[in-house]
Amino acid sequence: MTEKKIVLITGVSSGIGQATAQLLAQWGFIVFGTSRNPSTVSAMPGVEVLPLDVRSDESVRSCVDAVVKRNGGLDIVVNNAGYILQGAIEEATLDEAKAQFETNFFGVVRMVKTVLPIMRKQGSGQIINISSGVGLTPFPFVGFYSASKFALEGYTEALRHEVKPFHIKVSLVEPGFIKTQLYHNTQRAAKEIGDYDVWQQWASKARDEYVEKAPDPTLVAECVLRIIEKKAPGLRHTVGSEVARAVRLRRFLPESMFEMGVRRFMHLNEKK
Predict the structure, then answer these.
(1) What is the pTM of this model?
(2) What amino acid positions are annotated as catalytic residues?
(3) Over the stretch 202-230, which tens digit does the pLDDT of each residue have?
């Protein structure tokens, strides 16, 4: 790199955000990470952690303003903050569903609306949104999480078209199972309905088995670095063999066969 680029990464307390912040700092970027509680974040050499709640317009503005005032601009934003709401769709209250979107989708929207005027004025910039494999192939019992990522997929593709004339690059990263705290920090839908218990337990067991064998978040961080280094990065970047396989199968298999495969993958055909 001929000059140090300024990067802002949301959600660096652990997992993908933390790994990405550490890797980019090692590569000489000026890295700012964010957390709702910066005091709880482990120190990372070359990374300054700022307070940010992506659910708050004021918090987003304050965070972005702090970075820009200190550095005179902002080159790259990696939107990573998010969480999983677990439970059958019927079990989730409307408020819980809205809260899921407030962080995973509208949190990104707030960040983008705040940084776009800066990037347009600069005539350059890059936005990388961390989506998920379940934003391409939804999984049962994380229905609202999947829906929030599906929304992010469509939003990001439209955004890419709109800001291309201003030399702003936009990409998605779609990880499969990654060994992170994300799965341990899931929020459970408040209203439990016993009729779903058996299949929900099978699905959770299948997920845990795949997470146990999953790669660590460095794999996603390396994907982010490759996107940044490319002159013309593409829109979608899958991480993990199971995501690439699911995308191919969905493209070529009849819908009924693909559905059968998902149910077998998640053990949903087991008897009650």
Answers:
(1) 0.94
(2) 13, 131, 145, 149
(3) 888 888 888 888 899 999 999 999 999 99
